[in-house]
Amino acid sequence: MENLSPLPSVLFLFLLLNVTASVAAPTAESVYTSFLRCLTNYTKSQDHVSDIVFAETNSSFSSVLQAYIRNARFNTTSTPKPLLIVTPSEEPHVQGSVICAKNIGIQLKIRSGGHDFEGISYVSDQPFIILDMFQFRNITVDVQNEVAVVQAGATLGEVYYRIWEKSKVHGFPAGVCPTVGVGGHLSAGGYGNMLRKHGLSVDHIVDAKIVDVKGRILDKATMGEDLFWAIRGGGGASFGVILSFTVKLVPVPEVVTVYRVPKSLDENENTTEFVLQWQQVAPHTDYRLFMRLLLQPVSSKVVKGQKTIRATVIALFLGGADEVVTLMGKEFPTLGLSKENCTEMSWIDSVIWWANFDNTTKPDALLDRNVNSASFLKRKSDYVQKPISKEGLEGIWKKMVELGKTGFVFNPYGGKMSEVSSDATPFPHRAGNLFKIQYSVNWDEPGIELENNFTRQARMLHTYMTPFVSSNPRSAFLNYRDLDIGTNSFGNNSYEEGAVYGVQYFNDNFDRLVKIKTAVDPENFFRNEQSVPTNTGLNTTGASKSGASKLSHFSLHWKVMVKVGGFLILELFI
Question: Which residues are in the FAD-binding PCMH-type domain (predicted)?
Fold first, then answer.
């Protein structure tokens, strides 16, 4: 063993004692002061910058934080809170926030609408700052060129409304929930009830603006082909801050048709045969027809005190009622669709109908960002590539009734989805997938026991479904965020940890995303619990060194750690 002089050890102790004594523990207030000074200097603006930075001591802090929390599980007194919330209104505010958060070494979480199912845009177990993009909501629609420029903090409802203002025969294929934010929805794929006709939202992105880790504003031309590919389905928050997307509009007919048809297992309706037939029809029928299937355990109307399964088809057809009734009569007779089940309306009214507004609601309701009360919820996802058998379905019904509350949403693929290659964007779930499953459970009361019960239900049903869904990998949808499938501590094994969830979300596209991430953000500043990791060979750095033996080379490496509110916020290296 190498002989070590005691001098380095004595010197190390001397330095440790002296620096520890001389470093005053920074407070949340000092973080605010440092960040605000940096941001003011960067933006060259003495006015109004303080109006967009909120510390916990600010009387508006809680209301700003809670305004875009869409899962009540992450709105409790024990939920970790950010040190600061920044609400930029101009591009230099975003650039400066990236530069300043990086300079003071604090994680930046980016929130556009707050609908992340696991709350990772506004929660962290490390000290963090929220960059809340809700003021970036401008939408410019150019009907002549059939494009729209949409800022990241706009909501889908606002997008649909602004398109409708300019044209009654254009729309955009994205989600059915109007309060979802554009930045997260589009950058992770974005799907809705026109995906069989028009594909995903990302299939219609023609340009983008992003702030990178160096604080530069890049567009498609300046960011390059790889980064532009990555942010169209790979999750923008792994690579930078999305400012806006330029999207291509799609044509919609003047008249569309919607319908909702429920079936119940205990009312002499052959629900199992109904679902068997749905699997054969929904992924293969006319591209213009999207038939979502809801499966829910509900109280029986026949046997008091027992539960049964209700199956409900909710559909959008980009055409008239007569045509879809005739089509379903031929292809899906167990649906029993009649014209009385159908309602013809404009496309914008179908958006309102799918958002569960009543029939008297006007389109301007889509501009309302307020959510009366967020539910407690858990979501998971799967992909089905082979039809589930009758025996399989009957076993699933029993399991759902046994568990009690967790339901399914089956979203059919096929159509345009089968025509786009799996590597055209990072979103890989294209041809070969019949439908996507969302596992869904909501509850209204707080409490850790309730949360554990309902989340356990969802996990147990997910486990039960293993024989019926995709495997090697068992694929998942990024925007149905699910931390159960893996998280990243970003230590020496970050690539391996990232691959656990990354391959499920991105399949064969994962390694390309890692290469792009490593190139554009090598220090992994933009990170969250399930972000794309870098792969810079951290495991080999210093691998030949034997710890303390290197003190003889005077390579003193130590740190003073200071905590604020339970968070490590300063690491001082010498």
Answer: 78-252
Comparing CA positions, the residue from 375, 400, 428, 53 lying closest to residue 234 is: 428
Length of the chain in residues, anyone? 574
Is pTM beyond 0.85 here?
Answer: yes
Is residue 41 assigned to a domain?
yes
Q: Is the pLDDT of residue 7 over 80?
A: no
Residue 284 in any domain: the answer is yes
**Residues 166 and 44 reside in one and the same domain:** no
The pLDDT of residue 540: 28
Written as one string, the DSSP assignment of 361-392 is --GGGGG----S-PPEEEEEEEEE-SPPPHHH
β-bridge mates for residue 408, sequence order: 295, 439
Whether residues 43 and 81 fall in one domain: yes
CB 309 within 8 A of CB 271: yes
One domain for residues 246 and 260: no
Q: Which domain holds residue 206?
A: 139-251
- CATH number, position 147: 3.30.465.10
- In the prediction, which pLDDT does 558 show? 28
Please identify every residue annotated as catalytic.
480
What is the C-alpha R_g of the chain? 26
Say which residue, 20 or 322, is predicted with more confidence.
Answer: 322
Q: What are phi and psi of 533, to 5 degrees?
A: -80, 165
Instruction: Report, in this order, helix, strand and coil percent for the chain, each rounded to 5.
Output: 40, 20, 40
> What pLDDT digit, counting tens, does each position of 238-292 carry?
999 999 999 999 999 999 999 999 998 876 568 999 999 999 999 999 999 999 9
Q: How many domains does the chain have?
A: 4
